[in-house]
Write a structure and sequence with these properties.
5-stranded parallel β-sheet; 3 domains; 24% strand; FAD/NAD(P)-binding domain; alpha/beta; globular; homodimer; disordered C terminus; Enolase-like, domain 1
C-alpha cells in the first residue's frame, strides 16, 4: 500500500493541469492512467481536426484563383491519403511534445486502472493507494449508439477517424455539433460526397433561428444536410445505407459525431456512497470542482460540463489547487467560448439567444452582415452574420452567436469584453483598423447600442470625463 | 456670396466623417473639394493595397501544398496584369460605394478650391463663402523628392501604382514603412524581383531592435533589403539604376514610399495670421481638433498626426461635432493601433519600445515566439515574435510590438485591453480557445506578469472576490 497527498486519475489535459498545481504544494502525488497517453486534444481532438481543416481550406481557396488572376487551379488535386498522412505527422509531433513533458515526472505515473474503495482509498491494479485527496480527470469518449455496433466496420468516430489511411468517396456524418460540422465540411472540401444528418438544427451549437438557417444555407452549398433520425443498415450500392425519413443514401462509411460521454463508469463512485445523477455523474461545484462533502475533485470532460480543452485545463488547475490544499477555494469561471472551425467560422460566446430567451432576459440583438463588409469582400469571404446580445437596461454585453469569416478572432475579442463585464459604450471606445473583420463586430455592437433603452451615441461615449478644457470658441 | 454654418474643406474620409456630425446639428453646410472624389483609402490606400496583398498571399500559399498532399502547385501561375485588373475591379466597387453615399448630399458639395480670406471667409473658385466654422480635411499626398522628378517616368507612388496595367520584372521599393513593406512583399510574392531600400531599420514602424531584426530576416527571404540612402539615375541594363553605397541595382521601376505630407500649402492659413510650425502645419489640440483661438478645425491626414483611416474618421467626427456647435469639447483619443498587412503581419499598439525607453518608463517586456505555437504550426506559419510592454509597478499594459501570424487580430485584442486600461492579471482572466493564435499573445502577457515587481499567478487572479463558500474540506 502506498500513501500520497493527492492521487489524480487520468493523465489527459485536465489531469496534467491538475498536476501542475499540485506540484506547487507537494511532490507526494501520483497520476494514474491505463489508457493511451498524449491527451484527447492532441491525439484525436483539436489538433488533428484543425490540421485536416487547414488542408481542406487551403485546397478550397482555388475557387477564387481564376478571378484573382492566378491560373492553373484546375490542375490542383488533393490526395486524401497523403493529406491524412500529413495530419498524422503533425499530430504525432503534438503528441510527442506532450509525452516529452510527461517524462519529466514519469516516476509519479502509475499505468493501471483505478477503482474507489473508499473516498481516500483507490484500488490501482494490484496495488492500493491511499490519498488525502483525489482528482478525477478521466476524460470522455465518443458516444456510439449500441444499436449501431454491428455496423462498426463501416463506422468511424473521432478515436478512429484520424487513423484512416485515406477517406472514401461518399460519407455520412451523423451529428452536426462542432465536430460533425468541422469534419463534415473538411471532408466535402477534400472531395468526399458528404451527407450530414442531425436530429436538431443547432448547427455547431448555434441557438439563434436566423443563424441556424444561415449556417444551414452556407454549409448546404458544399454538403447535404438532413434533419431527422438516421437509420443505418448494411448493404445497398455501397457498404452502408443511411435512411432519414423516406430518403436513403448509400455511403462508404459514416462518421458518428453525436457527442461525448464522461468516462465515469467503473470508478465505483456509487459503491462508496457518492450520489450520482441520472447520467451517472456526481454533483460538483463548478467554482471549486469539489464533489460536495468529499475530498474528491472532478475536472475536465469527466465533469460533464463543456468538453472543451481550455475548460478542462481551467478545471484541472482549480481541482489541483484545491486538492493539494484540501480546501475548496472559489474561482471565477470564464465566459463560455465555443468556436467551430468551419468556414465561415461559427462561434458562441457568453450567453446564447435561446438561453436568454428562455430565461426571459430583457435584451436587444445587434446585427451585422458581412455581405458588403470591406475586408470580407477583399478576402472573397463576404458571407456571414453576427448577433450580439445586450442587456436592454444596462447596456452590458451578454453574449454573441455568429457565423462569420475569422469569427474565431471576433469571439476572443468578445470573450475578453464579457470577462471585463463591459457595456457596449465601453466596447465602442476601442479603435478598429480599416479594413478589418473586427469592423463587422463593431457594426453589430453599434446596432445593439442604437436599440437600447438609454441610447448613447458612440461619439458621446468618447467624451472626456473632465469638462471641455478650451471652453466655447 | 454665400453664408453657411460650417464649411468643410475636403471630401475625403475625414471630411465625410466631419459632415456626418455636422448634419446632426445643421443642414446649413458645404463640403468643398476640387480633387478626385472617393477617398484616399478607397482609391489609392487601404482597399486596393489589401486587395493586391490578398492575391499575393493566396498565390504564396502554394509553397505548403505539396507537404499537405495537394498536388499541382507548380502549374499555378499568376498573371500580374490580370491581378492588377482584379484589384481595380474591387477598388472601383469600394469607390462607387463612397460616391453613391455622397450623392445623397450632393447639393452641399462645391467642386472648387478653397483659400482663406479670413478665419470665417473662404474664396472658393469665383465665389466667396462665409462660415461660422471651418473644418480643414484636405488629406495628404505621397512625398516625392524633388531631385527625382526628372526620373518620374520610372517612378511610381501610391497614387499611380494601382493604375499600372501590369507590374515589371524588377522593382525597387524606396522606404519600408507600412506601405513599402506591404507592397514590397506583395510584389515579391507576385514574382517581381524586389529590392527595398530604407534609411532606417524601423520596418513597418517597429522600434524594438529584436523585432526589427526578425522582420528583416523574414522579409529578406522574399526580397532584398538594403539600408542607406538610395541614389537614383536613369540608364543601366534597365531603365533605372538604384545605388545604395557601393551597390547598384538595375530595375524597371521604383515605388517611392517615403511617407505622406499634409495638403496644407495653398490654403493661405499663414496669410490670415495662423501660426504654422516648421512643417507648415498649424498647432491643433488633438482632443478637440480645434486650432487654438480660432473657429477653424483640422482633421485627418491634413492634421499631420497618424495618417491612418480610423484616426482620420475619429478626428473628422470630433472636428465636425465641435465645428457645428462652435465649441471645443474634449474627446478621448484611442490608443495607437498600427497594422501592416505583411505576412506575418506587423503591428504596433499603444506605446512602442523606443518611446517607453526614451521616456525612462519602468517597464517589463513579455515575450513569446510562434516557433512551436500549436495553431501556427498547423497553419504552416510558425514564425513570429511578440513583445508586450507592461508597467513594472502597476502591472498595466502599456503597448505591444509584434511580427506574428494574424497579428491584426491580436492587435485589436490588445487595443481593447489598452482602451480599458487593464492590468495583465485582468487580461489573463479571459478564456483562450485551443488551438488559437491568441494563445501566443497570452504566453507573452504571462511572461510579462512573471517579471513584474509584484507577481500574481494567473490562477490567483481567478479567485472569487468572496471568501470560499464551501470552507475547508
Amino acid at each position: 500500500m502506498r500513501t500520497v497527498d493527492v492521487a489524480i486519475i487520468g493523465a489527459g489535459s485536465a489531469g496534467i493541469a491538475a498536476r501542475s498545481e499540485v506540484v506547487r504544494v507537494t511532490d507526494d502525488y501520483v497520476v494514474i492512467d491505463d489508457g493511451t497517453l498524449g491527451t484527447t486534444c492532441a491525439r484525436v481532438g483539436c489538433m488533428p481536426s484543425k490540421s485536416l481543416i487547414q488542408v481542406a481550406n487551403d485546397f478550397h481557396r482555388r475557387a477564387v484563383f481564376e478571378e484573382m488572376g492566378i491560373a492553373g487551379a484546375s490542375a490542383l488535386a488533393v490526395d486524401r491519403g497523403r493529406a491524412m498522412a500529413h495530419v498524422r505527422r503533425l499530430r504525432d509531433a503534438f503528441v510527442d511534445a506532450v509525452l516529452k513533458d510527461m517524462r519529466t515526472w514519469q516516476e509519479h505515473l502509475v499505468r493501471a486502472r483505478a477503482h474507489f474503495v473508499d473516498a481516500n482509498t483507490l484500488a490501482v491494479g494490484d496495488d492500493t493507494i491511499k490519498a488525502k485527496a483525489v482528482v478525477i480527470a478521466t476524460g470522455s469518449r465518443p458516444v456510439m449508439p449500441v444499436a449501431w455496433r454491428p455496423l462498426s466496420r463501416h463506422l468511424l468516430d473521432t478515436d478512429s477517424f484520424f487513423e484512416a489511411d485515406t477517406l472514401p468517396d461518399r460519407m455520412a456524418v451523423i451529428g452536426i455539433g462542432a465536430i460533425g460540422t468541422e469534419l463534415g465540411l473538411a471532408l466535402a472540401r477534400l472531395g468526399v460526397d458528404v451527407v450530414a444528418v442531425s436530429t436538431n438544427r443547432a448547427i455547431a451549437g448555434l441557438s439563434s433561428p436566423a443563424l441556424q438557417e444561415l449556417a444551414a444555407k452556407l454549409l448546404s452549398r458544399e454538403m447535404q444536410i438532413r434533419y431527422g433520425r438516421a437509420m443505418l443498415e448494411a448493404g445497398g450500392a455501397r457498404p452502408l445505407r443511411v435512411g432519414i425519413g423516406p430518403e436513403a443514401w448509400d455511403v462508404d462509411a459514416a462518421l458518428v459525431a453525436v457527442g461525448r460521454r464522461p468516462n465515469m463508469a467503473g470508478l465505483g463512485l456509487d459503491e462508496i456512497g457518492v450520489a450520482l445523477d441520472e447520467k451517472g455523474l456526481p454533483k460538483v461545484d463548478p467554482t471549486t470542482m469539489r464533489i460536495e462533502n468529499t475530498s474528491i475533485y472532478l475536472a475536465g470532460d469527466a465533469s460533464g460540463g463543456r468538453a472543451i480543452f481550455h475548460e478542462a485545463v481551467d478545471e484541472g488547475r482549480m481541482a489541483g489547487f484545491n486538492a493539494a490544499r484540501l480546501e475548496s477555494h472559489c474561482f471565477q469561471r470564464s465566459p463560455r467560448l465555443a468556436i467551430t472551425f468551419s468556414d465561415p467560422n461559427i462561434a458562441v460566446v457568453g450567453r446564447g439567444w435561446q438561453s436568454l430567451t428562455n430565461d426571459g432576459v430583457d435584451f436587444v440583438t445587434g446585427q451585422a452582415s458581412f455581405a458588403r463588409q470591406g475586408r470580407a469582400v477583399v478576402m472573397g469571404e463576404s458571407e456571414g452574420q453576427i448577433e450580439v446580445y445586450v442587456d436592454r437596461k444596462s447596456g452590458k454585453l451578454l453574449g454573441t452567436e455568429m457565423i462569420a469569416p475569422r469569427a474565431e478572432h471576433l469571439a476572443h475579442l468578445l470573450a475578453f469584453a464579457l470577462s471585463m463585464n463591459v457595456t457596449v459604450h465601453q466596447f465602442l471606445q476601442m479603435p478598429f483598423y480599416h479594413p478589418a473583420i473586427e469592423e463587422g463586430l463593431r457594426t453589430a455592437v453599434k446596432d445593439a447600442a442604437y436599440k437600447l433603452e438609454r441610447r448613447i451615441r458612440d461619439i458621446e461615449a468618447m467624451r472626456c470625463a473632465e469638462p471641455p478644457a478650451g471652453g466655447t470658441v
